[in-house]
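ESCALATION

Customer reports they have been waiting on this structure for their group meeting. Please prioritize. Original submission:
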Amino acid sequence: MAKTRVLVEFGMGTSLRREDYTEAALRAIKDALWHNSVNMAELFGFPKEAMIIDAEIGVQQPDRVDTQ
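Update from on-call: job pushed to the front of the queue and completed.
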């Protein structure tokens, strides 16, 4: 089955004191997932484990984000 986008969720994260771009990115991902109260998989008759989540992170200085 082909992937079909059914939901877009946005999150925001900051690290003002330490200016840690990695921590800010992690906070943004957690924020977006926390706001997602719609369980799309079960709505279409699939188990939660069948959900595929693609995350795109936008930051001012991408080279300062530890992707590992």
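Sent to customer with the following note: Helices lie at 21-35, 40-43.
Escalation resolved.
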